[in-house]
Hints:
The structure is a single chain. By secondary structure, the protein is of the alpha/beta class. It folds into two domains: about 40-295, no CATH class; about 300-420. The protein is about 60% helix and about 10% strand. Helix 3 (about 40-65) runs antiparallel to helix 4 (about 70-80) and helix 16 runs parallel beside helix 17 (about 390-400).
Amino acid sequence: MAHRSLPDLWSTLATVDAVHGPYYLLMHGLFAVLTYADPLLVMRLPSVLAMAAATAGVVLLGSRLAGPGPGLLAGFAFALLPAVQRYAQEGRSYAMVCALVVWATYALVRTVSARRACSWDWAGYGTLMSAACLLHEFAVLALAVHAMAVPRGARRGWAIASAGVVVTLAPLAALSTSQSQQVAWIGVDAGAYVSFLVVSALGVVCARTLPRRPTRPVDLRRLALALLVVPSVLLMLLSVVQPLYVDRYVLYGNAGLALLMGAALHRLGPSRWMRAAAAVAVLTLVPTTLQLRDTTSRTDDVTAVARAIQVLGEPGDGVLYMPQRRRVWSLPYPAAVRGLHDLALDRTPVASRTLYGTEVSATGIRARMLNSSRIVAVGDPDGEPLDRGAQEAVKRDVLATFFEGCVTRRVQGARITLYARPGEC
């Protein structure tokens, strides 16, 4: 998407993926500037830098709310959290959203703590929140957190700034709502809900160790607990109507957990028991830290998929994506399918201004498959639900009726099988 021309990108966003449009535009600019750099470096570097900035923001936020010691410990805790480590590596918008929400929260605390907050202070807060919401709409849920933390005397300034954020987001939200079929894949993940309950319980335990500080304009316990819990709960409530809860959508809630952990560790003091507990906690995270840096931690391994296609396919063979959205696996590595015929493709993703391209009718797919003697089928791993569309059904039926599987390569998140006519493997 980032490598498409601006007219093509704009036309695509009018029909699909508008929610990620500002992120695509940002990355388009970065790729244009860093033309000769490694594309993986360009794609991932913003996330690395964003998480570094988010960590710094957590330190400053903790320092302002509870002092330098708790702030520094909160920064260490934040950087060690598995979710933070994961999304610091991924070429996606979530790390940047997290950093912007953290710094917006810091700007809010700094503004309400000032004796004389001017309009520029509120404009800075509003700008940071607007940027976060444009990169991912669910950052707007942080406004509910800030509403709970703002003292009475600062509510007017906050309300005006928040109204500006909502107005800025409204056009994108209206457009993305018309593309709501994009979140149809989200289901109810019991593991994610259990994980949220465990993390929230840890946050509550940490909060119980902290004293109330009525003299401070913003209370750390109140703000941090709200940041940890409220966005996720709101998303879960919305999921009653349409499943929407995915933990990365509210990644910034980890900053609330880190603030509570940092303040609790500092209050309990540098006793021998606390040092031992901290060492055990860090050592316990080592396996997770190492696993997060391995391809098995991801949903799929696109490099391995491309390699398997190259090994199994020969020039003149057909290639079939089952379902069609799996065509995206070949887009970063076009050399892997060079010489192969995409049997179902009608128009390419760029030409059709879609994410995955468009495919010919079921009848057309059947005719093309029957004219082929060897087909490389690139599909989901075993156990995944089958797409029920007519085009996907005919792919499965023709392969089962007129072909036999010769060899299968299973890689992380995918299954690649070479099919041939019976007796010709």
